[in-house]
Structure formats: structure tokens, C-alpha cells
Amino acid sequence: MQRTTRIIPGDTPGVSYGLEVLTFKGSDPKAPSAYLQAALHGGEFPGVAAVHFLVPLLEAAEESGLIAGDITIVPMANPIGSSQWLNGQPMGRFDFFSRVNFNRDHFALLDFDASNLPALDAPVQAAVRLKAELLRLALPHEIILDLHCDFESEQYMYVPKAFWPGMRDLAAALGCKAVLTWEGTADFAFEEAAATPALATGADAPDYKRRAVTTVEFKGLADVSTEKGREDAKGLYDFLIHRGTVEGKSKVKPAAFDCMVTPLENVEMIRMPAGGMVLYHVKVGDVVKRGAKLATIVTKPGNVSGDVIVTAPQGGRILTRREFRFLRRGDDLIKLLGAKRSAKAKSGSLES
Questions:
Q1: Which of 222, 221, 216 is nearest to 172 (CA)?
Q2: Who's near 332: CB < 8 A, 6+ residues apart?
Q3: How much is the CA Rg of the chain, to the nearest whole Å?
Q4: How would you class 41 by CB atoms within 10 Å of its CB: exposed for 0-12, middle for 13-18, buried for 19 or more?
Q5: Per the count of CB atoms within 10 A, which of 49, 144, 234, 345 is most buried?
Q6: What is the dihedral of CA 199, 31, 147, 253, to 10 degrees?
Q7: Nearest to 175 by CA among 244, 232, 240
Q8: Ramachandran sector of residue 116 (left: φ over 0; alpha: ψ -120 to 50; beta: rest)
Q9: CA torsion, points 317, 321, 327, 330, in degrees to nearest 10?
Q10: Model pTM?
């Protein structure tokens, strides 16, 4: 394994950011190659834990000559975001300078030519140069996994509709409880930027079926532990074996995967109808009927006349809920996976 650090000059004198990149050289140029990155949102660490425990597995495989395809890993993909703290809290989701989500507004390339992307020292904002470098690193690979987490959540992932059910093996390997499929979200999250050139080649391209591009949500923000990290690392490793990037006997059984597969437009983004304290009536993973009580919003503590009841707009499964118990009007509260299109469905990403 080779460790290198890409230096991203900051936007003011005396400031720079180090982007560590780990590479494993494969022995078979015909084997599928893989790119994994974690913590694009600088405060999300379940994916970092997974990578932390995956690397030793890959090092052992390397010593045994079992790395078939090239593997590139960026353990912490956003040194800018991870350095942003305010009042003792990490603030790695939005860039302080532009206020843009670090996982939005990535480059929209129509092919795999990244030669015109801004260089590390180009006269543009550091966050833009970071996005360019990550895409440069990712595009040469058939497998591209962007490792994230939600607030309080089940394990799930986002998949381009055109790549499903071809990525059933990854969902099975990671024990996902749900898969959200999308096409043309237009907000250009990293996943969309990485998938667009591959999708443009068409399904008849020789390597199309080898493609796997996704955002993996490794449960919630607090799900960072040795046990969870090892479990997720094992899932990633088994997937790489199943795809032939690492030689070995895979335990992945795609046919056994039976979780919910939900189009993005069927996801009910339930938001706060009023500001106040949140009292949940449902847990992540619960299945509810239309009209079921999901939460009570206490707007006037000590006065029940101010309580606002949040109900389910359709039946479905509770995928996520917010970790905070005091939220503002309009804040995201719950993701509910519905069986039909949401009446509030819109183009673009589910949340900001």
C-alpha cells in the first residue's frame, strides 16, 4: 500500500489542507478497480470507522498477493469540512465560505475526461478544488463508494436506477434495510457526478455491468464503534471479493437480499410544522399506516394546547429521524419510505 498526501492550498496565506490517499496496486488489469471515500461531510464518521478496519484487511490481502484490481481509498475526504468547528461542535456539512453543502454542486462531466477540472492550485475556492480532486481520483474506477451516514437511521444506500438491480450484491453485503433509487436529481452530489459519465456510455458499454456507484448511509451519526466499524469493513471487503477486485471466496448472497427498494419520489420528507421540542412516537425501522402519529411537537411547554401532532401522509417504513429533540419550523424531521409517489415529490435531492 502506498500513502500519499495531496496538499490543497487554502484561500488565505498560511492555510493548507492535507488529503491523505491510500492506494493498492492490483495484479490483474482486467479486474474491476475500486474507489472508496469517507467523511465528505466532515462530521460523519461511521464510514471512517469502516475504512479504518477495512485497510488492515486489504493490507493482509496485499501481502498474500490477493489484490486483483487497483484500489484507492480516501479515509477522510474533506479536510476543509472536518476543520470547521463552531461553539465546540463540528460543522462539516456546509462550507463556511460559500454555504454550499459539500455534497452538492460537484462537476457535471459528460465523459471520463477530467483534464479540464481545476488543479489543486487553481485560482478558485479551496472547496471547489477539493471537489475536483476527489472526482479525478474516482473516475478511473468502475466501483465508486461514497460513505456517509444519516442522523438516526437504518443502513441504506442511494443507487442510480440504471444500476439497479446490478448493485444488489453491495446491498446484501452491507446488510442494507433499504435502497433509494434515483435518476437525474440535478443537484450533482458526488455520486451523481461520478455516475454521469458511466451512465452516458449506455448499457451496451463493455464495462457497464461492472459499474457500482453509490452513496452508502452507514446508519446514524452516533453509530461509531469498534463493532460497527468491523462489521461494515467486513461487508465492504466481502463485496470487493464478490466483484473480483480482491481474490477469495465471497460470502455475499445477492439473491437473499430482500429489503425495500424505493424510488426517490416515493420518499416522504416529513418536516417540522412548527418549531418546538420533539417527542417521537415511532422508532427507526417501524412500519406505520397512513394517519399514524409520528411525533408530537411541543410548542408551549406546560400547555398541551400548543402541542402539534405530526402524522404519516401515507403508509410506509420509518427510515430516518433527526437526532435533535428541539427543531425549527421547516426542519427535516423524518424520512418515510412510501409505496406510492409523495404528493410533495420534487426534483433534486431530498434535503439540503
A1: 216
A2: 269, 270, 271, 272, 322, 351
A3: 21
A4: buried
A5: 144
A6: 100
A7: 232
A8: alpha
A9: -50
A10: 0.97
Which residue type occupies 15? V
Structural contact between residues 276 and 308, judged by C-beta atoms closer than 8 angstroms: yes
Query: Is 25:66 a contact under the CB 8 Å cutoff?
Result: no
Q: What is the DSSP letter of 263?
A: E
3-class SS at 349? coil
Phi, psi for residue 199 in degrees, rounded to 5: -65, -35
DSSP code of residue 350: S
The beta strand positions in 161-224, using DSSP E, are 178-182, 212-220
Q: Provide the residue type at 256 as one letter.
A: A
Per-residue pLDDT tens digits of the chain, which is 352 residues long: 999 999 999 999 999 999 999 999 999 999 999 999 999 999 999 999 999 999 999 999 999 999 999 999 999 999 999 999 999 999 999 999 999 999 999 999 989 999 999 999 999 999 999 999 999 999 999 999 999 999 999 999 999 999 999 999 999 999 999 999 999 877 999 999 999 999 999 899 988 999 999 999 999 999 999 999 999 999 999 999 999 999 999 999 998 888 899 999 999 999 999 999 999 999 999 999 999 999 999 999 999 999 999 999 999 999 999 999 999 999 999 999 999 999 999 878 888 8
Instruction: Give the DSSP letter string of 275-329.
Output: -EEEEES--TT-EE-TT-EEEEEESSTT-GGGEEEEE-SS-EEEEEE-S-SEE-T
What's the start-to-end Cα distance of the chain, in Å? 37
CA distance 246 to 249: 9
β-bridge mates for residue 157, sequence order:
179, 216
- Burial class from Cβ neighbours inside 10 Å (0-12, 13-18, 19+) for residue 83 reads middle
Length of the chain equals 352
CA distance 313 to 288: 10
Dihedral Cα 115, 121, 124, 129, nearest 10 deg: 60
Locus of grid cell 446484501 = 172
Question: For residue 70, which amino acid is it?
Answer: D
